[in-house]
Design a protein that fits this description.
Mean pLDDT of chain B: 96
Structural class of chain A: alpha+beta
Structural class of chain B: alpha+beta
Number of strands of chain A: 50
Low-confidence stretches of chain A: none
Oligomer: heterodimer
Distance between the termini of chain A: 97 Å
Radius of gyration of chain A: 37 Å
Shape of chain A: elongated
Order of helices and strands of chain B: EEEHEEEH
Helix content of chain A: 10-25%
Largest sheet of chain A: 7 strands, mixed
Number of strands of chain B: 6
Number of helices of chain B: 2
Number of helices of chain A: 22
Strand content of chain B: 25-35%
Largest sheet of chain B: 4 strands, antiparallel
Low-confidence stretches of chain B: none
């Protein structure tokens, strides 16, 4: 019979029948069901296998604290492992699979682990797989991963979109049970901006699962009416299906909204989930409480669950897990389950540990009794009870509700180092130190009655918002006291589960104590208690209580482990949001990008920029062919390269020159207007930071360039010097990297090309090497021209406002056609700078000084600059320090790879005899062999020396000769031509 | 965290870049006889207190102000936010 365990009542829509499958078998449920409730309605209690022992398991709870009923949902790319069946909302066509089994769910081959449990106790990883070490990676780990894995991944890209959003509010209310609803209502009516978030798809909290009235209305009706009023208030935002996962600094909360998890496929344009960052002025935490189980022998069989879960399935979902049920309790709330189930026609027996248990006229109460064992291979069939008189009795039942008391959900109060405090009357931890701006209400605060929650919620909102109005009248509601006698585990039990998800038993905790792992943090890590995806929400208290007893301490003396976000597991996709693939980081395009694409350029990422790496021509089959051609054509006639990505900082003010004198180690005060100078910046510790040029366009106006990679940090550093060290200097900075499109035009014909574009006279006399000027191009467009050269050729850099960059590159190519102009990319740029011996990031690598770079004399002694004092310290000025050199192979066919180390031609090859290393390497088409730049001890005095360049790791051992770093035009005649 | 920028009001800390101890404002006198030692202290010897700490934060994704933020490194409570430039002037820095 379909849905044979379905009973009357509940908040499901019986008119809507939803078909779904579990392990390939078809079932029916209703709208409003979870996967777990629908399966239970169909008589399916077995939903998974346990982590370590592969024990048959069913749901322990009816909520997000679920340790057992983890399933895989959907198929194909949307397959999602480790989803809690107790929160998965049923939809038409849902496909679910059990996981962590080898073979069938009902006959799992790895159930053999259960028989081997004596070997699989606490710390068995550490004890069993010690030796031999080599076996770990190849043998032990794959086996363990196979046996103890959870669900499996689809191995396909997630087709759905995840989003991130930001929300602000006066009051964030976490949890929409009676306390949260009253808090939101009180604040909403007072006009505050309120966000009410609840992790369930149906707001109302426990009111959905109880038969309690509020005023004259049923709990569910009161919830509906309250939600209707809240929804009508424009200042209230309701966020169902939203879990607040963490409480962060200064009133910032993280929350995951499962926008489309309850649909087969997200609606058009809708994300699957949204990760909200909520900025809340005040917060009311009304997260409720979680019922905790009691440990007894074989307490993990399908059909055994918390008493409140049994009640939820009956009252909210219209499911009697079994027609014969029992309740095992140490407190009065367990009897509420018995009453509700009895009213729904379930045959019920209560086993209460307390000799003075409340009696009932309707059903049997076994006072002073305990459940000592259970039976049923794939689901509960019998429980063995030890009665008050020490005789045993066996009860036949298919469902057992266990109630060990309620734990307030203190998690979010502890995310900022807060520690909960022990409440003796509740036998539970309640919130202690709270984050600033947080108030706690209802069951989360330990007010476990409905009345307490309603009043507490209203008051919390009033306190949080400092409302002076009278407390709103709260409707009449249940106000039962908490009667509990602590009872954690049945004496003598061994295979009694504390943490069902990580398979931690009473025996494991005893072993941990015996072996000296006694602090809670050690206990947790040694036994893995509470380390599963449910973070021990139903497990930790039992473990703590046992540890306290074994250590002869009180529970508060033992204390809790630290609660950390997220409250429930969050998909990595939600954290990633839209930052996936191409959108992982912003993409910056150069002004010539469109043109370069048209030329078929190959692009490379440099920082966030996409730059042309080379421009392949028809017939060229390797990148080297293209790069060699670009270098030869540029050195032979003329080439053009987009250099917009270099950082540009505009420096203006009457103290601009003084400012640059401070940030550059070399002098700038005397740089004439119309001239450019190379500048080297040091860090304050004397190490080189960055280099570039500063062009003086006016007395009070410089344009500074930085390397592409350091554009941001150098600008930050310059602002630090300006604001923190020279606060009164008259100087202003602004980054203009993206304001100017800049091209290097290099080669003997560069002037001939630019003459056709620049409106002014740029002859060698009028515009000599290192000149700079504001100019116009193409008959009036404002532009800047710098006669600087990175390639070592006669060269210019020409800049126009960004929007004209595309037009300018097309114009340069057109005017250069008669000189066979070529575009060149970053590779050719790199080759030419290595040939010329110019340093870049490979040489300015954060360990090198001006002296190492053979620029020690640049550090002015006539003035103070950042890094000057420490650059002169002894340790950076030793005889035999590294100096920049050139490296060429003795056999011209050999490569001289960067990263390889220089060793003396004779003598040992080891780290102790290291002489230096190669930093940048390339094939030089001009010289016809490979070359490299590098650093060599006492390098300037070792020109012509033959050495070995070695990289034992990659098998490199090349005979090389040390030479000048300036391979091409060492006298600089070309660039002054 | 939220940093209450003196000019722009409360801003999320993700808009800022952190540089640590605000003692970096107190750059030593390079002409003093013990300049080398003073710069060594300045560059390398910093306190790392568990508690109140004056720190430099740069509003990189904002107005590019350097701020001095007085923050408790244990609780992340922020008691004071000033423009670094004002702090530097108050400590006698000029040009």
């Amino acid at each position: 019979m379909s849905q044979r365990n379905r009973i009357d009542g509940g908040q499901i829509d019986r008119a809507q029948v939803l078909k779904f499958t579990f392990d390939g078998k078809s079932f029916e449920g209703h709208a409003g069901d979870t996967l777990a409730s629908a399966l239970l309605a169909n008589g399916v209690r077995l939903m998974g296998r346990s982590f370590k022992y592969h024990r048959p398991r069913g749901p322990l709870t009816a909520g997000s604290e679920e340790p057992n009923a983890l399933v895989e949902l959907r198929s194909g790319a949307r397959q999602e492992p480790n989803t809690r069946a107790t929160t998965a909302e049923l939809f038409e066509g849902l496909e679910a699979q059990s996981q962590n089994r080898l073979g069938y769910l009902k006959f799992d081959l790895l159930a053999i682990n259960d028989r081997l449990s004596n070997f699989l106790t606490a710390g068995f990883y550490y004890k069993t797989f010690m030796w031999p070490a080599a076996f770990w990676e190849k043998l032990y780990e794959p086996i363990i991963r196979r046996a103890a894995g959870l669900g499996s991944l689809s191995q396909q890209d997630d087709p759905d979109v995840y989003d991130k959003g930001f929300l602000h509010c006066d009051l964030l209310v976490i949890g929409a049970g009676p306390a949260g609803l009253m808090a939101a209502l009180t604040a909403g009516r007072a006009g505050a901006d309120v966000i009410l978030a609840d992790d369930d798809f149906r707001m109302g909290g426990r009111l959905n699962s109880e038969m309690l009235n509020i005023g004259e209305a049923s709990g569910a009706d009161w919830v509906a009416a309250t939600l209707a009023e809240l929804a009508s208030l424009p200042n209230v935002r309701l966020l169902p299906r939203t879990t607040v996962i963490g409480a962060f600094d200064h009133g910032i909360y993280g929350a995951v909204e499962r926008v489309s998890d309850h649909l087969a496929v997200p609606k058009d344009g809708k994300p699957r989930q949204i990760l909200w960052r909520i900025y809340a002025k005040k917060t009311v935490l009304a997260a409720g409480a979680i019922e905790r189980p009691i440990a007894f022998e074989n307490n993990d069989r399908p059909g055994i669950m918390t008493a409140s879960a049994l009640r939820s399935y009956a009252n909210r979902f219209g499911v009697a897990v079994n027609k014969r049920a029992a309740v095992f309790t140490n407190n009065d709330d367990g009897h509420r389950t018995a009453r509700d189930l009895y009213a729904k026609g379930v045959k019920i027996t209560v086993i209460d540990t307390r000799p003075d248990a409340p009696k009932s006229l309707d059903y049997e109460v076994l006072a002073g009794a305990q459940v000592v064992d259970t039976k049923g291979r794939l689901g509960l069939t019998f429980v063995d009870v030890r009665l008050a008189d020490d005789t045993n009795r066996t009860l036949e039942c298919g469902a057992l509700g266990v109630s060990g008391g309620w734990n307030p959900n203190v998690h979010l109060t502890c995310h900022q180092r807060g520690r909960p405090t022990w409440n003796e009357a509740l036998s539970a931890f309640v919130p202690g130190d709270l984050p600033a701006d947080m108030t706690v209400a209802g069951a989360a605060m330990g007010n476990l009655s409905t009345h307490g929650a309603l009043v507490g919620g209203a008051k919390a909102a009033q306190d949080a918002l400092d409302l002076k109005t009278r407390l709103p009248k709260t409707p009449k509601a249940e106000d039962a006291p908490v009667n509990i006698t602590p009872f954690w585990y049945v004496q003598g039990c061994k295979r009694a589960w504390l943490d069902q998800q990580n398979d931690v038993t009473v025996k494991d905790v005893k072993l941990s104590h015996q072996e000296g792992f006694r602090s809670v943090e050690h206990l947790k890590r040694y036994t893995t208690l509470g380390m599963a995806t449910d973070q021990g929400k139903t497990a930790n208290m039992g473990g703590l209580a046992m540890m306290a007893e074994l250590a002869g301490k009180t529970i508060p003396e033992v204390g809790t482990t630290i609660f950390r976000p997220p409250y429930t597991p969050v998909a990595i996709g939600a954290f990633g949001g839209r930052h996936r693939g191409q959108e992982f980081h912003p993409k910056r395009l150069t002004p010539s990008h469109k043109w370069a694409e048209e030329q078929g350029a190959v692009f490379v990422e440099t920082g966030n920029w996409l730059r042309a790496q080379w421009f392949p021509q028809p017939g060229e089959t390797t990148w080297r062919e293209s790069v060699d051609r670009e270098v030869l054509a540029t050195r032979g006639s003329v080439g053009v390269c987009d250099v917009t990505t270099l950082g540009k900082v505009d420096v203006q003010g009457s103290d601009a020159a003084m400012f640059l004198n401070k940030v550059y180690c070399n002098g700038f005060a005397k740089l004439p207007v119309g001239k450019t100078r190379y500048g080297l910046m040091l860090r304050e510790d004397g190490i080189a930071m960055d280099d570039g040029t500063a062009a003086r366009l006016a007395e009070d106006h410089f344009v500074v360039t930085t390397t592409t990679a350091n554009a941001l940090p150098v600008y930050r550093h310059m602002e630090f010097v300006r604001q923190c060290l020279m606060p009164d200097a008259d100087v202003q900075l602004i980054s203009t990297t993206e304001a100017w499109a800049q091209f290097a035009v290099a080669g003997p014909n560069s002037r001939n090309v630019l003459k056709k574009i620049v409106d002014q006279d740029i002859s060698n006399d009028a515009f000599p090497f290192m000149a700079c000027a504001n100019i116009t191009v193409c008959g009036g467009l404002r532009a800047r021209l710098f006669r600087i050269s990175f390639s070592g050729e006669l060269a210019y850099e020409i800049a126009v406002p960004m929007t004209y960059g595309d037009a300018l590159i097309r114009r340069i190519m057109k005017e250069g056609a008669e000189f066979d102009i070529v575009p060149y990319g970053t590779e050719a740029l790199g080759v030419m700078r290595i040939e010329k011996g110019h340093a870049t990031a490979n040489e300015l690598n954060g360990t090198t000084t001006a002296q190492n770079l053979s620029m020690g004399r640049m550090v002015s002694t006539k003035k103070d600059s950042i890094g000057a004092v420490l650059s002169r310290r002894e340790g950076l000025n030793m005889d035999g320090d590294l100096r920049q050199v050139g490296i060429k192979p003795v056999d011209p066919n050999d490569k001289v790879p960067a990263g390889a180390h220089l060793m003396n031609a004779d003598g040992p090859v080891d780290a102790a005899h290291d002489q230096g290393y190669a930093t940048s390497a390339c094939y030089s088409p001009i010289l016809g062999h490979h070359i490299a730049l590098g650093f060599l001890k006492d390098g300037s005095n070792r020109m012509g020396e033959q050495m070995r360049l070695v990289s034992p790791l990659t098998g490199v051992d090349v005979q090389v000769e040390i030479c000048s770093a300036h391979f091409v035009d060492p006298e600089g005649e070309r660039l002054r031509a | 965290m939220i940093i209450n920028h003196p000019l722009l009001g409360p801003r999320d800390s993700s808009e800022f870049t952190y540089m640590g101890d605000a003692r970096l404002i107190d750059r030593p006198d390079p002409d003093a006889s013990d300049a080398a030692q003073a710069f060594f202290d300045y560059g390398y010897l910093r306190d790392n207190p568990a508690g109140w700490h004056e720190e430099l934060w740069f509003h990189e994704a904002g107005d590019r102000s350097w701020l001095v933020v007085t923050r408790n490194t244990v609780t992340h409570e922020i008691s004071k936010v000033e423009l670094a430039r004002d702090v530097a002037r108050a400590r006698g820095r000029s040009t």
